[in-house]
Write a structure and sequence with these properties.
This protein is of the alpha+beta class. The protein has 8 helices and 15 strands.
Amino acid sequence: MTKRLLALLLAVGLTISLLAGCSMTTDGGKEVQGEIVYGLTGDPIIFNPILATDVPSGNINSRVYQGLVQVGENLEMVPCLAEKIEYSEDGKVWTFTLRKDIKWHDGQPFTSADVKYTFDTIKHDDYTGVRKTDLRSVDGIEVNGDHQVILNLSNPDASLLSKLTIGIIPKHIFEATPVAQLRENPANLQPIGTGPYKWGEWSKGQYIVLTANQDYWREGPWIEQVRYKFFQDNQVMLSALEAGEIDYMGSIPFDDIERIKTALADEFNFYDFPNNGYTYIGLKQTHPILKDKLVRQALAYGIDRQEMVDNIFKGKGTVMKA
């Protein structure tokens, strides 16, 4: 029996098993295979990368939209929609040369006008999202033809490149909508991007289906259909995993890890390796007591973090050193 795909991501550590084969089909000259079913807790809210802040929406957006750059396999920033990046000697002028072979899912060409529109919208006074500070060092955005974007910075900003993973949105879809009313545009619920997957269908509270973009500018995608099923909490989702209703869930409760590895040993291969993430306690600094820095420091020093890792996370974590 062929094994299904399962990735069991832990909040601090990571456990993963690898793919099973599915029935193969050929469409548009690309080989694609079956369907993978992801489990998520909570319902998505908005499919617009410059407005979304919730995790479920972010999962869908990451497959529909793309940014100028992306995180590479060694965690470095590498070109995505941009094929080349050049920097002035003083670090204040960044020039992005865009790929010329990219189309939006509706067939319209992707151009520098889309990038400028996206960034201008984020910087607009009426913008209601949370990304404005990401571009705080950008004084202006210029275009040079259809395939070059120039960012003029007020000062060199090494952190900016990592912020440019934000998905670019299509100008021709959104430009007629005032920035203050951007959340009301219907495309926020039926997104059109440049990514490997296109919008399929949405049964609210139940599932979302994305389908392979056969005109994708890169190799792939290799899976024909991605389905997201939504659950009220991790325990309900875990039951669905054990019942074979989903192939992937993003966080296995720590108390269930060993049981799951034993129960599903005949179906999956499991591997442990570090996850690129962290867990923290955020203190409200406007609180009358917590606004005192000494109080916050006392609480931080008083917490036995290693004890938390050992007992709550079952040893699957590393205490971060400041």
